[in-house]
Amino acid sequence: MIAKVLEKNSIKEFIKYFIVSVASLICDTGIYLILGKFFGSYLLSAPIGYTAGLFVNYWLSIKWVFSYRKKLHYALEFIIFAIIGFFGMGVNEVFIYFGLFVFNFSPLVSKAIAAVFSFIVNFLGRKLILYTKWNHERFL
User: Left (φ > 0), alpha (ψ -120 to 50) or beta: where does 75 sit?
Assistant: First the structure.
């Protein structure tokens, strides 16, 4: 399974996904910081920003990042993409919580640390489940 992620084409996709994730993160973090100040709760604003970033990430991923796509209806593909993303959002929330309330980091530092781990979870999940051709397509 790891060999599939380390293929030459996958390295290119990883770099492209990183660029797309930066664009998504700018959207996500902007909303996170603005709504966090407005609502007075960064834990409340985090999932709102993350969801906005999810839409940006999906659109750019299917248009530019991944060279192989399973033959799924767009709605089903997006639902699976979002489920993986919401798992990543859980990782995001945990790291933000610990950053803010356990380690007393600033909201921006907490978000930056969370983004690294969320990025890894999302890339691996999406690449392996949605955008890798397996010899025997068992997942979908």
Answer: alpha
Taking each helix axis from N to C end, the angle separating 107-129 and 42-60, rounded to the nearest 10 degrees, works out to 40
pTM to 2 decimal places = 0.78
Cα 66 to Cα 34, 49, 63, 101, 104, distances in angstroms: 31, 24, 8, 37, 38
pLDDT in tens, the chain (140 residues): 555 555 667 889 999 999 999 999 899 999 999 999 998 999 899 999 989 999 999 999 999 999 888 888 889 999 999 999 989 989 989 999 999 999 999 999 999 999 999 999 999 999 999 998 876 555 55
